[in-house]
Amino acid sequence: MSIIINKNSKILVQGITGKEGGFHAKQMIEYGSQVVGGCTPGKGGLTVLDRPVWNTVAEGRAATGADTSIIFVPAAGAADAVLEAAHAGIKTIVCITEGVPIQDMVPVAAEVKRLGARMVGPNCPGLITPGECKLGIMPAHIFSPGPVGFVSRSGTLTYQAVDELTRNGLGQSTCVGIGGDPVIGTSFLDCVKMFIDDPATKALVLIGEIGGGQEEEAAAFLQGKDIPCVAMIAGRTAPPGKRMGHAGAIVSGGVGTAQGKVDAFMKAGVPVLDTTQELVAELKKRMATAKV
Amino acid sequence: MIIHEYQGKELMDAIGIPTTKGRVASTPAEAKAVAAEIGKKVAVKAQVHIGGRGKAGGIKLADTPEQAEEAAKAIIGMDIKGLKVNKVLVEECVEIEKEFYLGITLDRDAGTHVIMFSPMGGMDIEEVAVTHPDQIFKCHTHPWLGVQDYEIREMLYKTGLDAKMIKQIHMFCKKAFELYRKWDCVLTEINPLAVLKDGRVVAADAKINFDDNATYRHPELEAMREVAEEDPLERSAKERGLNNYVRLDGEVGIIGNGAGLVMGTLDIVAREGGKPANFLDVGGGANAALVANALGLVLSDPNVKGVLFNIFGGITRGDEVANGIVQGVKQVELKVPLVIRLSGTNEKEGRAILAENGYEVAATMEEAAKKIVALTR
Q1: Is the domain defined by B96-224 classed in CATH 3.30.470.20?
Q2: What's the gap in Å between the CA of A120 and the closest CA on chain B?
Q3: B125: which chain A residues are within 8 Å (Cβ-Cβ)?
Q4: Cys-Cys with B189: which of A41, B14, B103, B309 at CB 3.0–4.6 Å?
Q5: What's this model's pTM, rounded to 2 decimal places?
Q6: What are the pLDDT digits (tens) for A92-101?
């Protein structure tokens, strides 16, 4: 078991004829993900990586029965691409694109939700259910199947922590990179709830960063749950008003401070660690006590 | 991207939001001319991208054009919290009877924009939020329908203000939201929204921030960008194509790939007793040109006493990254210690290449942070 994606996910790659889309589609196929085709307006009829290309998502979905898509189109067209997928009936839409204007994403995120579909991202590395399906741009070989549910707002810090988990013999059920933007489709809390309901997930790692109130929301939900869980918050030293790389990683108006997030996790009984080594060591300890 | 009060007021004027009458001046002589044109008592206000200018002496009142000239002489060139004042706004001095607050921003947790109004304006709204949370009224806008008149009315009638006043504020809410949408803002704030003794209601200050991801569709904003006011190193970063650089005030230069990883690196350096000089996320892999470029930038900060390079080799292999670093470092003049921490794909091969070339390498973030802190002491 896993959350959001598994070996049966049928994937369309929006922007498969581009450099990024083509590169990552190939990597996903090599991993074993079921990439059934791609979409690029004006490139319909082509074959890329032995897969058919359609002009529209609607055509691609009708021909393949795809239920999942991943988006590699430039920022100015990303919101349109998400809506196209959602309205074509795609249920899981991962938007890798970074730099999408906030005012484009506000109506799109709401519409995707209204349709009962799920968007992950934008500005995210995607997600992976190790051994079954990779739907993203992460380096696949650091992941391994296992009981740890993983949710994070950042990319490389995730890889760092996952690498550490795998080396310590702790595999992952699903790893979700929810993205570093202020408006995203799937929140920390959404993932935590799904993981709690997933029988294959026996422990949780949460990697947050400054900005917004998502970590606090997830922490409040975890209060009293007995699943072994550890967290890390990046950006403790960031000064207020300075944007740390991600559009969402900014402390403004006293909201989204690292300390507030640390306090929220501590209150919920979730320890917050400073480095990925300490994080994994603590999780190992907690999993041993919980006899997972 | 942020702009000055005078630029914000220009945008407000253009969309039909009444503001205080005035104009910007870059010299005392210009300030005198503007004051003469206004023909009454004026306020001379420093235009600088930082709060607290009033307390720092950046706002002065002047009864005559001559006094305005004197005030401008004192303010232009002044240093406010490390920023030099280049311009002043000279505007009519108004007699304020009441001060309100009006602000529009993104509510991240609600996933949509929110209009906020408070009858307690003029002061720091974050303080009001703490001391008088019941005095902040909010109206969340619909993700695609925007805001309706009745929604603004529902918010404003809760304030207890009289119907005539509510009607006036209603117009400000609508127009400010129109401005917020039109320009892809992340903040449009009028504080104070001032009720004057003569009965007028005007935007007495204007604070507007734009979404950096959307400036591409507003080419007019480029002309408003004040390059001279930006931190020179942050400006140099943009010129080098390094868009994720933030200057801080410490002495340990930090470079890494990925925003979260770099933030994590700053945190661990601080925990080990060092002070980060900057945040720099170079993204993706690390080829020679990129490494040389990033190092060149970080080393141009005179406070930097050492550099910590933290790279996770993902799809780009660690040995390729190591070769990139070796080649890149050769292209710059390195006079301070450099510690490289490399992990991930092919990390052993990568570290071997770095060690062969005489670099200080570390396997873990903690080890790297300890090393660089010791070397910069």
Answers
A1: yes
A2: 14
A3: 253
A4: B103
A5: 0.92
A6: 999 999 999 9
